[in-house]
Known about the structure:
Strand content of chain A: 15-25%
Number of helices of chain A: 15
Number of strands of chain A: 18
Radius of gyration of chain B: 19 Å
Shape of chain A: globular
Structural class of chain A: alpha/beta
Strand order of the largest sheet of chain B: 7-6-5-8-9
Mean pLDDT of chain B: 93
Shape of chain B: globular
Oligomer: heterodimer
Mean pLDDT of chain A: 96
Largest sheet of chain A: 8 strands, mixed
Low-confidence stretches of chain B: none
Helix content of chain B: 25-40%
Radius of gyration of chain A: 21 Å
Low-confidence stretches of chain A: none
Distance between the termini of chain A: 17 Å
Amino acid sequence: MADVTIIEGGRVIDPASGTDGVRTVVLKDGLVAEVSERVERPSGATVVDARGRWVTPGFIDLHVHLREPGQEYKETVASGARAAVAGGFTSVVCMPNTKPVNDTLAVTELILARAAAAGLARVYPCGCISKGSAGEELAEYGELKAGGCVALSDDGKPVSSPALMRRALEYARAFGLPLTVHEEDLSLVGKGVMHEGAASTRLGLKGIPGQAEDVMVLRDIALVELTGGRLHISHLSSAGAVRAVREAKRRGLPVTAEVTPHHLALTDEDVAASGYSTDFKMSPPLRSAADVAACREALADGTIDCIATDHAPHSAVEKAVEFDAAMNGITGLETAFAVCLGLVRGGALTERRLVEALTASPARAFGLPGGTLARGAPADVAVLDPAAVWTFDAAATFSKSANSPWRGTQLTGRCTHTFVGGRLVHQVGGETR
Amino acid sequence: MIGRQRHCIALEDFSRDELELVLDLAVSMKEVLRRPIKKVPSLRGKSVVNLFFEASTRTRSSFEIAAKILSADALNWTSASSSVSKGETLIDTARNLEAMRPDVLVIRHSASGAPRLVADHVGCAVVSAGDGAHEHPSQGLLDCFTVRERLGTLEGKTLAIVGDVSHSRVARSDLHGFTKLGARVRMCGPPTMMPAGLAQLGCTVHTDLREAVEGADAVVMLRIQHERIGDPLIPNTREYSRLWGLNSKKAAEWLKPGALVLHPGPINRGVELSPEVADGPFSVILDQVQNGVAVRMAILYLLAGGDPAEARA
């Protein structure tokens, strides 16, 4: 018989189709076959008992770093995809700042081949905006698109030249590719290593003002207006950038934005409280409480479209050093749901908006398949236990790295089953028969 | 131990009682320092490693003399001749030195937080001799000691700290030390040298030198670091000196009688202080240097296992 899975008794939350209630979900031949209150259980079907859990479309992360090729000691496409499905993510967009960077078909093809071999999450490569991510010449967008790239970015490096940014937005229009951009004015960043404020002053660490982000966001929105290109703001973190995006959307410009769980949950005061822990060092840095409040509000009202993890694995060698010398970035795929669920418990987000920001919104921003449990959609599903209490254990993470501020922390909320194309690719606890 | 402190890394972590414990003990230590034979057996058999990743003559010498007066064995280790130049990490360096069983590691480093990182990975006591723009706790303690010695107390006093506060670890340790001991602190300098959120640390912030120093019981003039002038923080030292430097005319007109002028050294004569002020009646700069040895003796004594009651006896 056909390969059929039935997920019974769970609360199906699918903002894209407007579903929220106890339903049974039938997955057949890699697609969602049915979502309804009563389903005849065909013999031979795999049955997942999802009572007390949420059943949502598989999460889509527009911003991860898989480090392959070049830095496989931190992460590989396979290990990153394993971490993704453990966190409920069935699709990830991987940034091009590998070694070499993804500015050619060869690198794109290698990533896709590794992803196919792993057979876990769907991996969508992001190509470079500029050759070598050097910020000087346009990369070959036609070739990158043909190879499978779904967006363009020099992530890790802002496009400092306004002229190049203009041409990139214009040229990418021909291929329907969004530019997903790391927004920082490097001269304002200087040698900064954390957010500029009372915490950086107390710690004696060089600060980065939120305005380093604001000025670039404002510049690029102006260039969107000039070119008609599609702009996606990566890991937005400042209140000023929120205001700029809100105004751009009000004017109908094709601008979308993402925010990370850590920029929603932590502030610069947490850096101070950590005693210089490099697990709290990232770019953009953890901002002030006012910035965090602005980001939460903007995510809730849709100004910020989606949640992306900016999963950035680094080895212990690169983090067990002085704060100034440590690499930027933290892992995030396995903790994202629990961290964001904390925002729901705190009243900053509704359950529906949380799921939307992890599913339908990112799918829409980059035009990706999935993000819904509508009949005929890809059978990418996350089963989530919102009450599960667990500890994020560095030794048990599926990523090759464990650089996370939540290392050793007790969290509430966990993905128990993940299906990609109808195939069970991750399971923890729960009952499957 | 200094109260609850196993290490001496940041005065922000110290309670008032812990600060006073060190300052009280430093009074006895200063008496030892003034004896004709400056040697006591208090730390015989103990060893102190001075681990300096940044050039420093006076702080390192001060720690070395303090250790030797207490009969501890002192080893000076500088990064220029070290395995750091061969790529070794700070933690590896610290662990290797710790394997030689020192009792105290004194560390200076250009990165804020480096002594704390070391303290998290070694078993012996760690003393910060200055980390980045974070803190310089022994300097803060010696400044507290010097003011207390001259004025009797810091309680209710007003102290001004003038200069490049953004880059000054001395300013931060002084701020924490002074305020915990009951003083009010005014910070002053060009706006480009005043870090964000400074007032939230418990001081008032000024750009006008006269406003900051008038009526102050003591003024700490920070060293202008010539290497920073390349940053667009001030146009040049000439303008800085005119607006934020202290000369004898300003001192005579603005400082109250008996006010103290401190400077962590080395002084840029003619920039932050005119020679007449540096060597004049307000200046307690050489007291600071001597008190630095006494305070460091107290710190080493306490952290290497000395009994404060015994030391005072």
